[in-house]
Structure formats: C-alpha cells, structure tokens
C-alpha cells in the first residue's frame, strides 16, 4: 500500500527569468505504508522544495502528489490546507515551538485546533512526551530545555493529530553528533510505534542507513541511494 506518491513532479523557480533554477525534474517517488525513507542530498539540491511539495505546502509545475491514494494536485489551496492538517506532520531543523507555552501546551494546541477535547489532548501529549523519554519535561518552556529535548517536543507536536505521513527536513541537523544520534533514535521509535510512513531528509549517512530505504536527489531527480 502506497502512502505517498510523487509522479512526474517538476519545479522551477523564477521560470523564464535570468535567475531561473530548475530544482526538480520529473521526480518519481513512493513511500509505502509504515516505510521510513531517507532522502539524502547536498545543500541546495532541492530537499526542502521536494518536502514542501510532498506535504502540500507548495505546488509542482507539473506532475501529481497523492497521499493515501488521493491525488491532491488539482485541489484549491483551502482544501489542500485541510488535507495537510489531517494527513501530514512536519519536523524542521529548528523546532519552531511557541516560546511562551510549555512542552505539553505546544502539543495540546494543535489538537484543540483540530477539535480534540482538552482532557484527551493533554493525555495524548503526556503519552507522546513519555514515549520520547521526556515525560518529566511536560511543564517546561522550550527555553528551559536542551536542544535535543526541544526537538523531541517538536516530534511529538508533529504527531499530535495522528498524521499518516511524517516529513522531516534535517530533523537533527542542529544538534551535536551524540545528541543527534539519541534524538534520532527517539524519532525512529516514535515512527515505528505508530506505523507512520516517513520521508526524512538528512546529511547523515549513518542515520540514513538505519531507515528502510535511502534515496538521493541528484540533478533534480530522485534515484536509489
Ligand atoms: P535544499 O533544501 O536541498 O537545500 P531547496 O529546496 O531549499 O534545497 O532549494 C533548492 C534550490 O532552489 C536552491 O538553489 C535554492 O536557492 C532555490 N530556491 C528555493 N526556494 C526558492 C524560492 N522560493 N525562490 C527561488 N529559488 C528558490
Ligand atoms: P532550508 O534550511 O530548509 O534548506 P532555506 O534556508 O534554504 O531552508 O530556505 C528557507 C526558505 O527560503 C524556504 O521557504 C525556501 O523556499 C526559501 N528560499 C530558499 N532559497 C531561496 C532563494 N534563492 N530565493 C527565494 N527564496 C528562497
């Protein structure tokens, strides 16, 4: 069963202008249900562009993007936004947590926005924090936490609304190697526990090798890694 499918996806910035950049050219990529795929590429190769298109944040110039067998390519911005909130969790290199809220509140808020009752949202936040090993940090604000802890909270927030697809852009890229290793393990554990499908961009080949499959972005195309 295919969870994410990109078919013939192309993207060019500044088309027809001097600054034209052809980033993606006829990209085909599939991520199956429960599969973790690493996306490896040098900086500037188009990883963020590919993840944004896969996560319905950006539209391709050509080609189709399907999540859970549904082709979202032709839908309005509003309908794609609704689909994105339901289907996709995002993690970035920087955590983007709300500084004035605690770890738990940062995970509760997207659930409330999604119509979840507060008591259930809090319970789910606590469960997620416990699963990534920082249950005792629930009441701390991001500024009182280490970089690795902040990133674990960001993982929990991404999974708060039970998406079917996780997209991560260098999720441990800001951390020192030892922390990166442990935080990455926490992410893998979380994804495996929930049976999520994940596409994770990373420069770290050792971490990439622990996933089910590695693909590379090379000259605008996705090839086996
Ligand atoms: P990566 O995430 O692999 O570093 P990006 O997808 O961010 O790569 O960028 C790929 C290329 O497209 C880079 O040359 C970048 O400068 C360019 N680019 C990215 N976004 C835009 C944009 N909105 N407008 C113009 N060029 C862009
Ligand atoms: P990342 O660290 O995820 O690769 P970047 O710093 O490359 O992100 O880009 C941050 C934002 O700026 C993204 O939304 C990207 O699309 C946009 N961007 C990147 N390169 C360019 C560019 N050359 N011109 C305009 N926007 C760009």
Residue share in β-strands: 25-35%
Q: Say what oligomer this is.
A: single chain
Principal-axis shape equals globular
Number of helices: 7
C-alpha-based Rg, rounded: 17 Å
**SS-based class:** alpha/beta
Biggest beta-sheet profile: 6 strands, mixed
**Helix content class:** 25-40%
Order of helices and strands: EEEHEEHEHHHEHEHEE
**Head-to-tail CA distance between termini:** 22 Å
The overall strand count is 10
Average pLDDT rating: 95
Unique ligands: adenosine-5'-diphosphate
Main sheet: strand order: 6-7-8-3-9-10
Low-pLDDT windows of residues? none
Domain ABC transporter: 4-225
GO biological process, one term: protein localization to outer membrane
GO molecular function: ATP binding; ATP hydrolysis activity; transmembrane transporter activity
Family: Belongs to the ABC transporter superfamily. Macrolide exporter (TC 3.A.1.122) family.
Helices and strands in order:
Elements: E1 2-13, E2 21-32, E3 36-40, H1 47-54, E4 62-67, E5 70-71, H2 77-87, E6 88-91, H3 103-113, H4 118-131, H5 147-159, E7 165-169, H6 177-194, E8 197-201, H7 205-208, E9 213-218, E10 221-224
Parallel strand pairs: 3-8, 3-9, 6-7, 7-8
Antiparallel strand pairs: 1-2, 1-4, 4-5, 9-10
Helix pairs in contact: 3-4, 3-5, 5-6
One adenosine-5'-diphosphate is lined by residues 48, 169.
Features:
transport; binds adenosine-5'-diphosphate; cell inner membrane; 10 strands; alpha/beta; single chain; cell membrane; transmembrane transporter activity; nucleotide-binding
